[in-house]
Amino acid sequence: MQEMLITGRGGEGVVLASQLLADTFARGGFYVQSFPEFKAERRGAPLSAFLRWDDEPIRRRYKLRECDVLMSISPSPPPARAVATLRPGGLLLVNRETRFPHCGDWHVAHVPGSGIARRHGILSAEGRPMGNVAVLGAAVKLLLPDGLEFLEQAIRSRMGAKIAEPNVVAAQEGYRLCARQHTVATDSSYEPEPAVARPPLPVFSASFMDTRVNNTGSWSLERPALLAACNVCGLCALFCPEGAMRREDGTMVIDFDHCKGCGICEDVCPVQNAITMEEVLV
Ligand code: SF4
Ligand code: SF4
Q1: 20 to 30 A from 239, CA-CA: which of 66, 76, 77, 139?
Q2: How far is the CA of 62 from the centre of ligand 1 (A)?
Q3: What is the model's pTM?
Q4: Atom 8 in ligand 2: which residue has the minimum CA distance?
Q5: Each residue of 247-258: pLDDT tens digit?
Q6: Domain extents in the chain
Q7: Helix/strand/coil percentages in the chain, nearest 5
Q8: How is domain 208-279 classified at the CATH fold level?
């Protein structure tokens, strides 16, 4: 089985890339598995997606801890922590015009994904080049050299004709312009970032870094209100994706700075008239 980690930022088409590549491998006769990992949902937030493919059914169901291939969709350098997950002998594919001046116990290839996207007018709503499909063309060249046609089919089946055609051309160009690197004497190792001190975890926290940094409560259109029947069992806190509920001094406390109003707490509560969602008046 081969495992791939795809990194990028919200709005760069990371999830779409993982799905298109999964479709490509499936059309090539492989069993595939693809799923994204989101933290705080916002454009520009670091996010990753995982892809597994094998010629036998895939039994693993957990997120990747190590990978054979790391594909960076962003034109910015890949996170060093992600590079550290590459297995010895693995492949690092980066979206860069020029060579990636680092080396390790892995192979490196680069493709000018953003430049290709810019040339073909594949831009985000904000006008940024979307290099994801061009990078996929490179990935197919490196991993499934006979699979460009499958990638083109995947793109056409996923996108409307008007959007699909420039993306097909970008994929073909990514396939053609992808370059494998040789290590040179000036290449340096790519060190993981130094560990940062993190605040202690609150009880039941599910996504501690992001909720500390992002005031997600300001997005809420609704918020939970606890009612008299709440028996303080704490189940809702276990499911809260923002770690915004906790049990304290025999009562449930809601952190409205971070509650994003998803309503999961209301959905999972097994007790009638214990919690309800209310509209936030702005
Ligand atoms: S709201 Fe429901 S799930 Fe949450 S503590 Fe109260 S009874 Fe339990
Ligand atoms: S609505 Fe409930 S589950 Fe969702 S973030 Fe707020 S407290 Fe957590």
Answers
A1: 66
A2: 29
A3: 0.66
A4: 240
A5: 999 999 999 988
A6: 2-189, 208-279
A7: 30, 25, 45
A8: Alpha-Beta Plaits (3.30.70)
